[in-house]
Specification:
The chain is 46% helix and 23% strand. By secondary structure, it is α+β, with helices and mostly antiparallel strands. The chain folds into two domains: 4-139, Jelly Rolls; 154-230, Arc Repressor Mutant, subunit A (Orthogonal Bundle). The strands form four sheets. It has a four-stranded antiparallel beta sheet with strand order 1-8-3-6. A four-stranded antiparallel beta sheet has the order 2-7-4-5, with no helix packed on it. Strands 11-13-12 form a three-stranded antiparallel beta sheet, with helices on one face. Helix 1 crosses helix 2 (24-37), helix 2 (24-37) packs across helix 5 and helix 7 (181-188) crosses helix 8 (192-204). It is globular, with a radius of gyration of 19 Å.
Length: 231
């Protein structure tokens, strides 16, 4: 059994990894609320958080490990969704809206998670810091879904993301973008490993340079031309 203080620490670390809060004071406040209302769950590799179509009775914050997500669509197609790692949520939109779970969520590795039942989610939502966490996570889910319906593959989405971050100052384009590979992965709905691989390929072509905490673009025109070639 993990002591309460350690559970709260795990929750705070997970919230720091996710899209919710990066202000330390607010993050601690949200972690305090969530650790009081949620319960710690340990799942072995291969076990399910939930299956598509089941009643959504809880949302899950991944504290450690990796969960695979897949949806069964018409015609028996299996659609792989972005996996959830530390800081990722499972089942939050369904819990808020009272829908059945929209996909299968299974442990790809052993997982630790904070399980938040619906009643406790409602009580936690009275706290402003926790509301910020949940609303930003819901917004992220919308962004990821938009990314999934695009025709672009991961490389195209990475290029589009970088182009969207271009900033012109005094008539010149800044070359450096302050963003981590994990941040890009969350933004485009891909894994960090995929982003790392695609950025390495772009770097080999001289289109980007990856540095710690930032990406440099030597020539924005060449990067845009690369995206246009793939359309």
């Amino acid at each position: 059994m993990i002591p309460d203080a350690d559970f709260r620490g795990l929750v705070e670390e997970a919230l720091d990894k996710g899209p919710g809060l990066h202000d330390e004071e607010e993050r601690r406040a949200a972690a305090a609320v969530l650790s009081r209302r949620a319960r710690l769950v340990e799942l072995r590799q291969g076990r399910a958080f939930f299956y598509q179509g089941e009643k959504a009775d809880a949302a899950w914050l991944v504290l450690d490990g990796r969960a695979r997500a897949a949806q069964f669509a018409r015609g028996g197609r299996r659609i792989e969704l972005p996996p959830r790692e530390r800081g990722g949520w499972l089942g939050l939109p369904e819990l808020v809206l009272g829908l059945p779970y929209l996909f299968d969520a299974l442990c790809e590795t052993d997982c630790l998670a904070a399980a938040l039942p619906r009643r406790d989610f409602i009580l936690a939502s009275s706290d402003a810091a926790f509301r910020a966490v949940s609303s930003r996570e819901l917004a992220r889910e919308v962004a990821v879904l938009h990314g999934l319906v695009e025709d672009e593959g991961p490389e195209g989405r990475i290029i589009s993301f970088l182009l969207s971050r271009r900033r012109d100052i005094g008539g010149a384009s800044a070359a450096a973008i302050s963003v981590t590979q994990e941040g890009i992965a969350r933004a485009i709905g891909a894994t960090r490993e995929t982003v790392n691989k695609k950025l390495a390929a772009l770097e080999a072509q001289g289109l980007v340079r990856t540095l710690r905490g930032r990406v440099e673009v030597p020539d924005w025109g060449s990067l845009a031309a690369k995206r246009d070639e793939s359309e």
